[in-house]
Design goal:
1 helix, alpha+beta, 3-stranded antiparallel sheet, two-stranded antiparallel sheet, 116 residues, 5 strands
Length: 116
């Protein structure tokens, strides 16, 4: 939980424009049991009219049991997920990614030091 979202409160009785009121409502994070996590080897970001579209791709190179004489001309990358996100959410996403990335690096450094 922890994170809250702002929900606009509308008064349908008032016909004149009024200042928007907001209240914070806790989010309940839910991941369905049948949600499939996919590995993303490539990411593409597109600018739409008012949002950003982030697409995640997974490459599946051919498996060869003997050395290949000529390398492939291309490798297929399948889109495994795509999201559209509003510009005001991007800074929060970047900060969350930075924080988790730093936690991962610190953990790897600690594990490396513990092994030596």
């Amino acid at each position: 939980m922890g994170k809250k979202d702002k929900v606009e409160i509308k008064d349908k009785k008032k016909k004149t424009p009024v200042e928007k009121e907001y209240m914070e409502v806790p989010l309940i994070w839910h991941t369905p049991d049948n949600m499939i996590s996919r590995y993303a080897t490539n990411v593409a970001v597109q600018v739409l009219q008012n949002e950003l579209k982030i697409s995640f791709f997974e490459t599946k190179p051919e498996i060869n049991v003997v050395p290949v004489k000529t390398p492939p001309k291309n490798v297929r990358a399948d889109c495994v997920a795509s999201i559209i996100i509003s510009p005001h959410t991007i800074p929060q996403l970047i900060e969350a990614l930075k924080g988790q990335y730093n936690n991962l690096i610190e953990r790897k450094i600690k594990e490396s030091n513990d092994m030596s």
